[in-house]
Structure formats: C-alpha cells, structure tokens
Design goal:
By secondary structure, the chain is α+β, with helices and mostly antiparallel strands. It folds into 3 domains: 59 residues, no CATH class; 55 residues, no CATH class; 123 residues, 3-Layer(aba) Sandwich (Rossmann fold). The protein has 8 helices and 4 strands. Helix 6 crosses helix 7. The N and C termini lie far apart (88 Å).
Amino acid sequence: MNATSDLFCAVRLAHRELRGGVRGFRVFLACVVLGVGAIAAIGSLGAAVQAGIAADATSLLGGDVSARLALRPASADERRFLAAAGTLSEVTKLRAMARSGDGARHSLIELQAVGAAYPLYGAVALRPGIRIFGVEPEAANDTWLSFRAGHRVEIPLPITSADGLMAASPGAITFPIIQRLVEDILLVSEDEIRQTVKFALTRMKMLVEPSGAVAAASVMFKKVPAGLRRIGVIVSGGNVDLDFLKTLGD
C-alpha cells in the first residue's frame, strides 16, 4: 500500500467513528491517549528492569551457570575455574530402566548422584516413612564395618565378584550421607550374588553385573527386615565378564 491509500483508509475509519456522533469519537481519542500513556509507562518500566538486571543480576537472578560434560568428569582445571565464580555443585546423571519384581511393569528412570553442596538453594528431603538400606558383599564389607563403628574403617583390598564394590573404605563425601539417611547396611554372600545374576538373566531377561545385583540379592534372600510391604530395588549396570557368565551354569 502507498501513502495515498493509507490516508484514504484512515479517513474512512475516522468517518465511520463519527457516525455515532462526536461522543463516540471522544471515546476513540481517549483510548488513543491512554494507549500512548500505557506504552510510555511500559517503556519506562522496561528500561528500569533492564537497568536493575544490568546492575544486580547476581542478586536478582542468582547468577547460576550450568556446564555439562558427556562421558567424562570435569578436570581439576575446569573445577577450579568454576569454583572461582562461586559455590560449585556437581551432579552425575544416569538413565536406566526400572522393572517391578515380577517383570510386569517397567519405566524409564533417571538416577542422579550429587555432591555435598547440592542443592545450591533449598533442601532435599525424603518422603516420611521411607526406609533406606545399603547392601554390600560379605567379602567387601568396609561400609558395613564403618556404619557400625561410626567412622570410616579401612580394610584390605577385598576380592569379590562384585568388582565395582571392591573398595577398602567408604568415600569421605558419601559416608556422612549414608550415616544421615541409611537405616542399616545389609550383607550378601558370593553365592547369593551369583544366584541373583542368574535369576535376572534367565527369568527376567536382564543382564545385570554382580555389583548391580547385590540390592536385589538382599531381597531375594530375605536380608531386609520382615514386614516391609513395598520394596524398591535399584538394579544397575550390565558390565559382566563372559568367564563369570560361564560359571553360572555350574
């Protein structure tokens, strides 16, 4: 459209407004004036908000920075760089498939391991009534001993089929969390671990490594306290040595 046609449309609209009398046109003019005033107020408010954010963004918005890495942890230099800007919290995420004990139900879940500074704001709380139990191999009972002693205990490097749990002592960061949230540490034998891996493979069609099967072993062999109505078990990891699988038929 050119300037002539634009002017013609404006004249037609004004003429249409005047059909209802001057009073109707006054309403139109009032709306125009108020609209201009509102636009001016919004512009002033927007400028004030932008100035406030520019001056105090950290106080107003928190100033959080999130960095993500795939398949590797942050290096020491990367941690130092991030820590220099404020409090540093580390989170490790893993996606897995959760299945019910009878295999009838399954759901995709996301497991999240967090550091001592997590969360930076607020707090994490468990639902009242939930009881948490940790499970270890009898041959690698460093956390079981530490839990009862009330402090970290170091044992000789253990030998167990659950090689992911072959630790001489519980972690300095994780052990206080265990003390705060876990009710007890349960123990399972090497044979119970083997039978659980075999049951998961032959009956549930799930390949579970020995370290990931210890929690399920505690339920299968009734190591958990009696009377629990609903039990959730975390089963993770499928890194199984072929030579170990061959022994399951013995």
